Amino acid sequence: MSIDRYHRQTLLPQIGTQGQERLRAASIVLIGCGALGTVIADQLVRAGIGKVRIVDRDIVELTNLQRQVLFTEADARDEIPKAIAAWKRLGAINSDVAIEPVVADVHAGNVEEIVGGASLVMDGTDNAQTRYLLNDACVKHSIPWVYGACVGVEGRTMLVRPGVTPCLRCIFPEPPAAGELPTCDTVGVLASAANIVASLQVVAAMKFLVGESSDSLITLNAWSAQIRSIDLTDARRADCPTCEARQFDFLDRPANHLVSLCGRNAVQVQPSSKRAASDSSLLAERLSSAGDVQTTPYFLRCTLRESAPLRLTIFPDGRTIVHGTNDPTRARAIYDRYIGS
Fold first, then answer.
1. Dist CA 93 CA 268 (whole Å)
2. How far is CA 179 from CA 41, 63, 183, in A?
3. Residues recognised as catalytic
4. 3-class DSSP assignment, residue 12
5. Among 62, 74, 87, 323, which residue's CB has the most CB atoms within a 10 Å radius?
6. CATH hierarchy code of domain 4-252
7. Which fold has domain 258-338?
């Protein structure tokens, strides 16, 4: 590998040629490829991280383009999964980096496998439940991870080094209740704020990988240009259920097979048991009697005739999104009727 492309980076005394080799040897798992995740992925790949696994469950939509920097109108028009669209774009930016796209929903049943072998995990998610799940998995397996969150014009980030720094539950003992905090779908998000948070996450990751780290929680308001760094040196809790008692409550909870997708008028349905993925051609043939079927390399979609405007989007792993309702009970009934339990 030629080092020339990283010349301006290796000139930095904080990195140098040895630091660049450490970045090249690193394997990072990025969970979520939205407003935070696209910026994180772009900067990691340009920086020469050796391997980046990008995990995301969603498809590119037009409303993403205001802030999700890797995607184009063509990606939205063609309904490309975000992980695949990011992989294609990033592969054209830096062919030195091994990029692995994973189109999947992260849950208690697969998170440990997804983060396994990582040097570091990056949080590009948009919901608290997944972050607490990541905290459990990373603390359990002693994998450092970088937390990040952004909504409106505000955001925050911190590096978690299991056994060394406070974990997420040391600082925020319990996730917020449903509806307790604003979301991007209710109050919006300033793209610049997401860019700043994601950039600070990447700085934290690079510092850790080259052998330097700081124990602080950074909070910011992009609109008023205020950034605050809170020292977490003595913030580890002796009564923390995760990093002290080693109780992994979020990993141990039964999987939630029905998830209403905020702001989407849609419900995601996970198969109630592990099973081999259905043959897409057979499923398409079976569903053709119920509606208009569209097949792509990434999913199968059926617009139901009798239940318009309901649509089913079925992924290869059996995960299905029922569009046109936010009622989990109705979504489950539709799923069972057309897909099977």
1. 33
2. 29, 22, 9
3. 184
4. coil
5. 87
6. 3.40.50.720
7. TATA-Binding Protein (3.30.310)
